[in-house]
Amino acid sequence: MKITVLSGSTIGSKTRTAMTYVRSFIEKNYPDEEVTLLDLADFDLVFSDGRDFREYKGDTKIVTETLMASDVILVGTPIFQASIPGSLKNVFDLLPQDGLRDKVAGILVTAGSAKHYLIAETQLKPILSYMKAQIVQTYTFMEERDFYRKEIVNEDALFRIERLIEDTMVLVETYQKAKAAKEAQYGF
User: Fold this and answer.
1) Pairing verdict, β 151-152 and 147-148
2) Range list of H helices, 113-154
3) Membrane spanning segments where (predicted)?
4) Do strands 104-111 and 34-39 pair parallel, antiparallel, or not at all (unpaired)?
5) In angstroms, what is the C-alpha Rg of the chain?
6) Cβ 7 vs Cβ 76: under 8 Å
7) 85-121, pLDDT tens digit by residue?
8) Which residues contact 168 (CB under 8 A, 6 or more apart)?
9) Mean pLDDT of the chain, nearest integer
10) Are 110 and 119 spatial neighbours (Cβ–Cβ below 8 Å)?
11) Euclidean distance between the first and the last CA atom of the chain, given in angstroms as a whole number
12) What is the CATH number that goes with domain 2-184?
């Protein structure tokens, strides 16, 4: 199974720190899975212009094709100005309308304030749903106080990340079994 861990911002360190932990936890606890960390800070993406994702070149092609080939996408996003970053929205705009069909998506949010807790519910989940992802209903929300010097210092935050990963893996396994059973009904 291909798992992509997407750090959805070109600036800041908290989301990258959390998503690096996500990748490490998956590699340690699910060693048979193929895990890729895509940190948007490491890529130079063009703005979406409506082309098919396969027509883009360079970093944009790498990011879009990696996401399209994934079975699981764990989306990490900071909250800026009470919204997801434009860089993350651009990634979704680069993909086809139903580009996340048959993919399981988990969400991890980092924010400077607890006031931004519902941004994932009001902005990110609707986008993922529109693109046909199977969404892990609970998500991990982390605040400024959970980090110190580019490390996660809150044990409860680490537990919530681990639970998100475990819930994601259960959902993808369940979804794949249900999908295989449905396809077996066709008999060809």
Assistant:
1) antiparallel
2) 119, 125-130
3) none
4) unpaired
5) 16
6) yes
7) 999 999 999 999 999 999 999 999 999 989 999 999 9
8) 72, 74, 104, 106, 136
9) 96
10) no
11) 24
12) 3.40.50.360
The pLDDT tens digits for 9-28 are: 999 999 999 999 999 999 99
Domain positions in the chain are: 2-184
Per-position DSSP letters for 19-72, written without gaps between them: HHHHHHHHHHH-TTSEEEEEEGGG--PPPP-S--GGG--HHHHHHHHHHHT-SE
CA–CA dist 36, 119 (Å, integer): 25
Burial of 141 (0-12, 13-18, 19+ CB in 10 A): buried
What is the per-residue pLDDT across 143-165, written as a single tens digit (0 to 9) for each?
999 999 999 999 999 999 999 99
Backbone dihedral angles phi then psi of residue 78, each to the nearest 5 degrees:
-80, 170
What are 59-90's pLDDT values in tens digits?
Answer: 999 999 999 999 999 999 999 999 999 999 99
Can you give the pTM of this predicted structure?
0.95
Rounded to whole angstroms, how far apart are CA atoms 64 and 48? 11
Which of 118, 50, 134 has its CA nearest to residue 83? Answer: 118
Under DSSP, the state recorded for 53 is: G
